[in-house]
């Protein structure tokens, strides 16, 4: 009995030390658990939930196939021209509201689909849907600039060649009526079908 | 007395020596024993973990898709449509770029000029005109994140906010990023920036939200000449696989060993 008491008296400080270490360890693990996000490490050394969060963002740019569901005639009109590769969004804007309305209109015919407006000349305009007849839209691609290839390579199955133009020379050669006008390209060309 | 004392001293010295020898023997046994034990994988604790992950390993059908991105510089005409598309799609603030297009102009006198394509294209831009007669060759090089297999940006992130997804896309976890910009420094291609709105690191994600819905990234969708091609490398019939099989491709700064996955057709070593 005396032996046990002596043992306890002599080792009490060790027990206290052990308890302190255990408490400290438990506290550390608790803090650590609180600081590591729930899905961390499930797939790799990162928060796996971030993948779903990033993937859940909405798509903004729409593919032409969305537009052509209703505007199939435009698709046919430009089918054999180089403009088949040019996205609808480049000349008509994002059209998010327009498409949302059109989708709703499928079920309820009384939904009004807002028509296209004019373009304000800003490539990042807020206008949802517009029709541009502005040379700036055309020249973004068609103005001859140092660095452009000598001709269009085959574009998505359209085996046509196109030589770049110097717009000023072109307008002079073709005797454009109003070479200074913003709409001068449309004196001879249509947007969808590029034949002169 | 003296003799006795000597004797006692002799015994204790012998004991000390013996215990030292024992101690050293034990240390040697434990050290080499442990070292030998680690040679057998069956004895280490990691075995259980590895067998566990083997059981969870997805079958071949569940493998994540392998995406690839190919830039055909022979086709790019510098319209800047991809730049606007990216900005709109990803809400990139003004002054920051997730993607950009460089123009390399090699003059006949041996000098090289590199400039950036304006977002509205060259028409109506106030950039100085170049006399085509002085130019030996010139071409456009679209650039964005290379989504390296061995990405230095991921390695330096102190909070594991930058990582590579199972599909091989390098992404940033906005919630964890502390905006220290260490990754911005680490990227040898300069594709990262600190977004002034979110104050976190930002860069091209190959439009992860789009590609996971089988849509093309915004820049690819917007390109009117097909200079940017995106697709699955694990499908041998995809356009990108067929083109990579047909043409020699090049990656940027190959010597750095980052193993970029964005490939280029039609450029040589001067483009970095």
What does this structure look like?
The complex is a heterodimer of chains A (196) and B (272). Chain A has a domain at 64-187. Chain A contains 8 helices and 2 strands. Chain A has helices spanning 2-35, 49-55, 64-68, 72-77, 88-92, 96-107, 135-142, 167-173, and strands at residues 117-118, 130-131. Chain B has 272 residues and is α+β, with helices and mostly antiparallel strands. Chain B has 2 domains: 2-53; 67-101 and 142-272, Alpha-Beta Plaits, CATH 3.30.70.20. Chain B contains 8 helices and 10 strands. Chain B has helices at residues 2-37, 46-56, 81-90, 152-156, 182-186, 208-211, 218-222, 239-246, and strands spanning 67-72, 100-107, 112-116, 135-143, 162-164, 170-172, 193-194, 201-202, 228-232, 262-265. In chain B, a hairpin with a 6-residue loop joins β7 (193-194) and β8. The longest helix of chain B has 36 residues, at 2-37. Residues 41-59 of chain B have low confidence and may be disordered. At the A-B interface, α2 and α7 of A face α3, β2, β4, α6 and α7 of B.
The largest β sheet of chain B comes out as:
3 strands, mixed
Form type of chain B:
elongated
* CATH architecture classification of the largest domain in chain B: 2-Layer Sandwich
In spatial order, strands of the major sheet of chain A run: 1-2
Which blocks of ≥5 consecutive residues of chain A have pLDDT under 50? none
Distance between the termini of chain A: 114 Å
Number of domains of chain B: 2
State the name of the first-level CATH class of the largest domain in chain B. Alpha Beta
**Large-scale geometry of chain A:** elongated
- Name the largest protein-protein interface in this structure: A-B, 43 and 54 residues
